[in-house]
Amino acid sequence: MEKIRQEIILKDLGIIDYQQAWDYQEQLLKANVQLKQQFPEEHPRPTTNYLLFCEHPPVYTIGKSGHMEHLLLTEQQLEERGISFVPTNRGGDITFHGPGQIVGYPILDLENFFTDIGKYLRCLEEVIIRTLAEYGVTGDRSAGETGVWLDPHDKGRARKICAMGVRCSRWVTMHGFALNVNTHMDYFSNIVPCGIADKQVTSLHKEVGHDVSIGEVKARLVKHFAAVFEAETVTAYSSAE
After folding, report:
1. Which pick of 2, 106, 160, 224 has the fewest CB atoms within 10 Å?
2. Are strands 140-142 and 94-97 parallel, antiparallel or unpaired?
3. pLDDT 10s digits, 169-227
């Protein structure tokens, strides 16, 4: 019997405040969890899968297991620089979101894909690795560290290009990945990115030497997301209502 390909609804939220995007994710997750509780015996689950794209105004976010000492600015310094700070319920430590960075928030019911968080994270990494390869950039994994790296095995050159942190409730995911495309790298000097002090951070712009089309990168991410998750993608209206 041929496997049913799940449908994933694409929504581009544009530039949106971090808290507003978080609230929207929670809304979608809650609706899916309620459906699963209402129809516990239905297979496939009667839930809706989403892939949300957005960019955020400058903000530092920290995960549940993060360490505040990895933020190197005071509250006053943050205010002077126009940068927000938000503690979150995702995994991982501290990271930066801002203009020129593609943030992807998959809201997936993993019971319709596979019930394995480790595999889910490896799949997200694979989407990024395949996308980077289209620009001649070799993405890789670093043992014991989630996300996508360049030269992770070379201590002096290892650098992170995509951070990841997720939350899962009743196998429904939220939060996701942040791919540095044309991101201003100066923002990362104010934190210990992902709590890892001995490795650098980079961007696609920095690696290829010029600005890269955000729209083009998104289109390639969508293509590889559909392939890796063996899904069909459908574009919806761009709104966080």
Report:
1. 2
2. unpaired
3. 999 999 999 999 999 999 999 988 666 666 799 999 999 999 999 999 999 999 999 99
Rounded Cα distance, 94 and 195, in Å = 6
Number of Cβ within 10 Å of residue 130's Cβ equals 17
CA–CA gap between residue 96 and residue 173 (Å, rounded): 21
Task: Tell me which residues are annotated as active site.
Answer: 194
CA distance 17 to 19: 6
Residue at 105: amino acid letter: Y
What number of CA atoms fall less than 13 Å from residue 126's CA on the CB side? 14
Axis crossing angle, helix 214-228 with helix 117-133, rounded to the nearest 10: 130
Tell me if the bond preceding 106 is cis, omega within 30° of 0: no
pTM beyond 0.85, yes or no: yes
